[in-house]
Design goal:
Layout lengths: L8 H8 L3 E5 L8 H6 L7 E9 L2 E8 L2 E6 L1 E2 L3 E7 L2 E13 L5 E9 L4 E10 L3 E9 L2 H14 L4 H8 L2 H13 L2 E7 L16
Parallel strand pairs: 5-7
Antiparallel strand pairs: 1-2, 1-11, 2-3, 3-4, 6-7, 7-8, 8-9, 9-10, 10-11
Length: about 210
């Protein structure tokens, strides 16, 4: 729906301050697949996500491998910081933008650029009713390049008998679908209370 007002960034960050969401599934890593594979720095997956806004500085925090990682995100601009996971540090620049989708749902678009790797992680967080969020994960190099690589591999083995049987049984389509879901996964988050349980309030975000 066009013409909907965008969320007020200041009011929205204040409303999000201190909120913690438990994610499902918890298998999606903060690092893009490119970094995980080529640096052999495999991540276990983000378990929780929280927000903080102190003295006008907004940050998004990710709980992974039992450790919280805080990423300052500039609103409408990039902020540089270091992200360390498994004793390896990466210089990143992070920005955030509050907007709405065609249904009027508030969306936080996060852009994490790994400056020394030419790799980017984009995370779109949709704020749903009942204190829930939906997260879409993207990365660059992304689905297009990785799927092209997959195509080149399958072409090389196309004359193999087992490959022919695998393709004939619909295995190739299944493989593509699984790869796409791995490269651009979707997760859900549920608001938790300080004692770690679901809020169960049935409330919603009030966006202004």
């Amino acid at each position: 729906m066009k013409g909907l007002p965008e969320p007020n960034p200041y009011q929205f960050t204040q409303q999000l301050n201190g909120k913690v969401f438990e994610l499902s599934p918890q298998s999606i890593g903060l690092f893009p697949l490119f970094i995980q594979v080529f640096h052999n720095n495999m991540t276990e997956g983000v378990q929780k996500l929280s927000f903080a806004c102190e003295k006008g500085d907004f940050s998004v925090n990710f709980l992974e491998s039992g450790e919280w990682h805080s990423i300052p995100a500039g609103l409408g601009k990039f902020k540089e910081s270091w992200l360390t996971l498994h004793e390896e540090s990466y210089l990143i620049a992070a920005s955030g933008e509050f907007t709405t989708d065609e249904n009027g749902t508030a969306v936080l678009k996060l852009d994490f650029t790994f400056l020394e790797e030419c790799v980017r992680r984009k995370i779109n967080i949709f704020f749903l009713p009942e204190d829930e969020i939906l997260i879409r994960w993207y990365e660059t190099p992304g689905k297009g390049m990785i799927m092209e690589g997959l195509e080149s591999i399958t072409e090389e083995i196309s004359n193999n008998f087992l490959y022919g049987a695998f393709k004939g049984a619909g295995g190739l389509e299944l493989l593509h679908r699984v790869m796409e879901q791995t490269i651009e996964p979707v997760s859900h988050g549920y608001l938790v209370t300080p004692d770690g349980r679901g809020s169960g309030t049935g409330s919603s975000f009030i966006l202004k």
